[in-house]
Design brief:
Layout lengths: L2 E4 L5 H14 L3 E4 L5 H8 L8 H13 L5 E3 L2 E4 L8 H13 L6 E2 L2 E3 L4 H12 L6 H25 L3 H4 L20 E7 L1 H4 L8 H7 L2 E4 L6 H12 L7 H13 L4 E7 L3 H16 L4 E6 L5 H22 L1
Parallel strand pairs: 1-2, 1-3, 3-5, 4-6, 7-8, 7-9, 9-10
Helix pairs in contact: 1-6, 2-3, 10-11, 11-12
Length: about 325
């Protein structure tokens, strides 16, 4: 049985269930790297140039972990997911960067995904990928159909039940610690989080942001809880035409939170990532118009856990005081 390695980074949080269903439908076994830790980040950073953004350094570390643990690694080159909007260039260049910087990596399965080229072209790419495992087109077609069903069920469950990918992935990397509500816990505050899934849900990068907010008494809202179509509508109402595939997760989610009158919004981004600064600024200005507290967290590998916790505590304390005064 062929073992396909899937790094627990970047596209993992959105598409792992779909990838798992597809490859297992072709008779392969999926091997996933463990949650990010210090060793994984250090090994990835050792291969990347200094200007490389933090999520890509983390990704390289996960790929290095999978070396000798699988027969091939799935690293798609994602150009666009449709609507004439495009992904960050790091997604498109990921397979080539991995080949250059991690030469010991097993063979890379690197289909180029561009939904703007139409369904026919997409299926040609998928069948080409499937030939690595089987020559039976019927088997590939069945695997594709099952993967699509799994992906729809995954996204629908998150929006319907109001849960995060952490919870929807059956606790694959969910913290086992129990929150012990103390006497000083703040009243429940509805806090919306905007950003990329690979930053919001990587507990090592963000120092367990969601867990800490919940432990402080926050009710957390994430983009997946809203629904893809609602995010898109909210985004276009603010900026019109979509240019980046991830605009909905930032601008769309921010607008949905503001319409729902959350108590505060926290944006989470990595240092030096240009498009994010423009998109976050749109939400920040909108939050200022509606007088909704807004906190921006910029992360890199040197971000202090203590400093982040202090900022969260101060922000929630300010939000709680404001809510009490306005009540």
């Amino acid at each position: 049985m062929i073992k396909v390695g899937i790094p627990r980074a970047l596209y993992y949080y959105q598409y792992y269930p779909m990838c798992k269903a597809f490859f297992e439908g072709l008779g392969a076994e999926t091997v996933v790297s463990p949650p990010t830790n210090k060793a994984i980040l250090s090994s990835g950073a050792s291969r990347a140039v200094g200007e490389t953004c933090l999520p890509v350094k983390v990704f390289f570390g996960h790929v290095k972990f999978l070396v000798e643990k699988c027969d091939c690694v799935f690293i798609p080159a994602i150009r666009s997911l449709g609507r004439k909007a495009y992904h960050c260039s790091k997604f498109l260049g990921l397979p080539d960067m991995t080949k250059a910087l991690i030469p010991e990596c097993p063979p890379i399965l690197d289909p180029e995904i561009d939904l703007n080229q139409g369904r026919r072209r997409l299926y040609q790419i998928i069948y080409t990928l499937g030939r690595y495992f089987t020559s039976d087109k019927g088997k590939v077609k069945k695997a594709v159909e099952e993967a699509w069903k799994v992906n729809l069920a995954y996204s629908n469950r998150m929006s319907r039940e109001g849960i995060t990918p952490i919870q929807a992935l059956e606790g694959i990397y969910q913290s086992k610690e129990e929150v012990d509500p103390g006497d000083n816990m703040l009243p429940s505050l509805r806090i919306g989080i905007i950003g990329h899934p690979y930053v919001i849900y990587d507990d090592y990068i963000n120092h367990r942001l969601i867990f800490r907010l919940q432990a402080m008494g926050g009710e957390i809202l994430t983009p997946e809880m809203v629904g893809e179509e609602a995010l898109y509508i909210a985004m276009t109402s603010l900026v019109g035409k979509q240019h980046w595939s991830f605009e909905a997760d930032i601008i769309g989610a921010g607008e949905c939170y503001l319409e729902a009158k959350v108590d505060g919004i926290i944006s989470v981004a990595v240092f030096g990532y240009g498009p994010d600064s423009m998109l976050i600024n749109v939400v920040q200005r909108r939050a200022r118009e509606l007088k909704t507290p807004f906190l921006h967290l910029s992360l890199d590998e040197h971000t202090s856990e203590g400093g982040l916790v202090t900022r969260l505590e101060a922000f929630l304390d300010m939000v709680e005081r404001r809510k009490r005064i306005c009540a």
